[in-house]
Amino acid sequence: MLVWKHAAASLRAGIPVALLCVVRSEGSSPGRQGFKMSVTATGLAGSIGGGIMEHKLVELARAWLRESNYTPEIRRQVHRAHARTDRSGMICSGEQEILLLPLRPEHLPSVEACKRALRQSGGFRWVVTAADGPRVVADTDAGAPLSRYQPGENWLYEEKMGFRDHLTIVGGGHVGLALSRVLSTLDFEITVFDDRPALNTHLLNPYAHHKRIVSYDQLAQEVPQGPYQYVVIMTVGYRTDAIALRQLLHHQVRYLGVLGSSSKISHLLQELQAAGTDEAALGRVHAPIGLPIHSRTPEEIAISIAAELIRVRNGVAGDKVNGKW
Predict the structure, then answer these.
(1) Parallel, antiparallel, or unpaired: how do β-strands 226-233 and 253-258 relate?
(2) What pLDDT, on a 0 to 100 scale, did the predictor assign at position 278?
(3) Are 136 and 124 in contact (CB under 8 A)?
(4) What is the largest CA-CA distance in the chain?
(5) Residue 115: how many CA atoms within 13 Å on its side-chain side?
(6) Hey, is 260 helix, strand or coil?
(7) Which CATH class is domain 165-314?
(8) For residue 136, which of 124, 144, 145 has the smallest C-alpha distance?
(9) Would you tell me which of 15, 159, 231, 290 could form a disulfide with 304, CB atoms 3.0–4.6 Å apart?
């Protein structure tokens, strides 16, 4: 959103601006497909991976803007010291291709459309081709890939607008607020549920995209399923944690975790096991959640949970790490 906001504000003010976007990446490339930034003569927003590579391409974009060069171009960057061509100046291995797209004043409506599409949390894609500037189109194919790059003379790049990964926090207390704050910087769409209508930390949470009062015995109907769905349970106590977990135990999600001490979690899982709960379902639960870094404060706990979510998101679905799926 910051990239599109910066680009739109620059175009409205009559300031030349260029969009840089990673359209392809492989290996240990520091910039992944979809990374983007906007660049003016004196400012920028976003990143395409950092380092000397980003610096050189930012300066190239600024030179183009000074020369009123509005021809888009895709530059290959190889991150190996002994590459024969297209060396980026970095040695981290891998490579990426970056679109340099100087934006013209007539692109302002499309840039504003990108901002609106992001606020609506899905349903749109942005597309740019060798022949046309950026535009927003309806995302009518739910099974389409998140992004697509067609190389060559008539190149095309498109990507889904909005968030891929969605986190549901069940429990809007102090840790829920702290986790919302951390995850809001990590490209998660955040929903927070609580069953207490007057809970201050829930009502005043400015980081969640969606906040609702929900009875925990209705969670199965409220929480979406899918490979990009993450759920953490951190209600006010043991009883409500148990209700929430029973509702979601058989949900098909990428991550399901429960906050609590080892003794509390052990008791909860033993109770579910005694009630005949499927062992495979219990084995998929991350509990206690968070990396073991001796967290104490809500903020420290939130960071430990965020780190575990990152590890799961960046791994391969189905991998088992430290005894957890």
Answers:
(1) parallel
(2) 80
(3) yes
(4) 73
(5) 14
(6) coil
(7) alpha beta
(8) 124
(9) 290
